[in-house]
Each structure stands twice: as C-alpha cells, then as structure tokens.
Amino acid sequence: MAGKSISHDVSSNIDALRFGLEGVKGDIVGSHPLESLRETATKNLEGKKRIITDLTYGSSFNLKMDLDKQILSRFDLQLHVI
C-alpha cells in the first residue's frame, strides 16, 4: 500500500479567518457604511481642532505642526528591545 500525502503550502500568507475571503465582491462593494461615517466624523473633528488652534495660537502654529508631522513621518518610530 503506497502512502498518500496531501501537499500543504506553508509559505502562503493568506489567512481567511483574519483577513476574510479574497474575491471580487469585496473590491466592488467597498467599506462598511459606518466605517465611512466614522472617517468623515474624524475628518470633521480634526478640522474643528485646527480651527480652534488657529484662533488660539495663530495660523503659524498649525503650519509648524504640519511640518513636524511631515518630518516625524519619515522616521520609523519602533522600539527596539534587546
């Protein structure tokens, strides 16, 4: 009796339980309606915060914060544990 085996590809990075099934429907439908609502709410909140800081500290403060954000986004801010 010859031994039968099923090949299993371990190198595959597809994890259906965590990332869902791949298909065309997910690309067409898009995100959940509440997700888009949350994104617009956070954009509105950020806009209100910018207006408040503009009125409180002046317009140069927002420009400085944007510049600092651009500079810090270039660096990888991960902690290296030895």
From TrEMBL:
Keyword Isomerase in annotation: no
GO CC entries: cytoplasm; nucleus
The entry's keywords: Chaperone
Origin superkingdom: Eukaryota
Pfam families referenced in this protein's UniProt entry, alphabetically: UMP1
Transmembrane segments: none
GO biological process: proteasome assembly
Listed InterPro entries: Ump1
Family recorded in the similarity comment: Belongs to the POMP/UMP1 family.
Name of the protein: Cyclin-B1-2
